[in-house]
Amino acid sequence: MMIKHIFKIIRNESKSNLALWLELAVVSVFLWFIVDNIYVTLSMYYKPLGFDIKHTYMMKLGYLSEASEGYRADYTEEQQIGFIENIMERLTHDPKVEAAAFCMQSAPYEGSWRSTSLYRDTFQVNSLYRYVSPDFFKVYKYQSVNGSTDELVEALKRREWIVTPDIVEALAPDGTNPIGMIVNQNKEDAMKGEGATVGAISKPVRLDDFDDFSSYYAFPMGYNIFKYYASQDIQYFQFPIRVKAEDDKDFRHYFWSQLAPRLKAGNFYPQEITYVPDNKASFQRSQTNELKTKMLLVFFLLVNIFLGVMGVFWFRTQARRQQIGLRMVLGDTPRGVLGKFYAEGLIILATAMIPSMVVLYVLGQKEVLSTEYMELSLQRYLIGMAITVALLCVMIIVGIWLPARKAINMSPAVALAEE
């Protein structure tokens, strides 16, 4: 009965309600875009990275110049390799170190990476690749799809390669078991069935907090690589370290005072050590500032929409003070009066959302909406719509309640006199 009465009120004030209906329809579309933008941005930012940088450091080695004291020019390639092995041995067995590795352009928040094509027979995929020693996965706690870090470590120790599910999907669309699959960076060799064996499947690993690209493959880096990158070329290598959680306090001081002197070997010496979370903050500073600016702009737009919608209902309710007072005189309860006004506003909103949903659906079909970081799924569409409706409901209820709460406390004499 009450709903029927509310529809009668809406019909009697059709002219003003039509303008309000159009405003809500337009505002809801713009609000959905804002909500969707926030949802996509935050979903990507908080999406699992696939690695852990807590208690990790990045060491880089230097190489003595010819003018430096202690420099020797007569070291052979085998001796150079031996020096690196000794450094890694001492580093790995330090009581405060949980794991240590070496890699080339593969560590997070370093600003460099490599990519190339990978082939299996005639199948091809373009992907990032990581050139790392086995314990790299222990340092950053990568996991296989089975949840095991050791599975990845052991695969590299066997000189087998590691790929992610995206690569499996691209190279084995025929359902071939990826474990044992032969892959190669050279197309001709791949078509001959020559190459490396896939030994494990890794969970996806993102580049950073702002990039959703997570496909990679990894192959083992051995000490022989230093035969080609000895001397000054050592700068191209990174030496990531994971410190035991209980020993992380003041580790840098410990490193320079006690550990670094033991890591000098031949012409190599520890040149730099940085805390990876600090690298992350520095590496992503511009993107973080951009995100903060974006969120402030979104907040400003939300406040404007909130004030606009709330203001419309405020003035609308304020203009009906006498009607509210008269209803109170005729025996209606404060809760009943507010309920009718809330229901009226929410019914108008519900009908206004219908064309908005159609417009957004059409824009999605026409690929107007961004799908760079997240596909336009039904879940994304409905989550954005649900948050939009919830925000508009709050705006409408607040816009009605603030002026109406005074009107329902109006004395009957004043209400009748004003009417």
What summary fits the major beta sheet? 7 strands, mixed
Classify the helix fraction into a percent range.
40-55%
Q: Tell me the radius of gyration.
A: 32 Å
User: What class, by secondary structure content?
Assistant: alpha+beta
**Element string (H = helix, E = strand):** HHEHEEEEHHEHEHEEEHEHHHHHH
Number of domains: 2
Output the number of helix runs.
14
Q: What gross morphology would you assign?
A: elongated
Q: What's the rounded overall pLDDT mean? A: 86
Number of strands: 11
- N-C termini distance: 26 Å
Strand content: 5-15%
In the predicted model, the low-confidence regions spanning at least 5 consecutive residues are: none
Main location: membrane
Domain ABC3 transporter permease C-terminal: 296-412
Protein name: FtsX-like permease family protein
GO cellular component, one term: plasma membrane
List its salient traits.
419 residues; 2 domains; alpha+beta; 11 strands
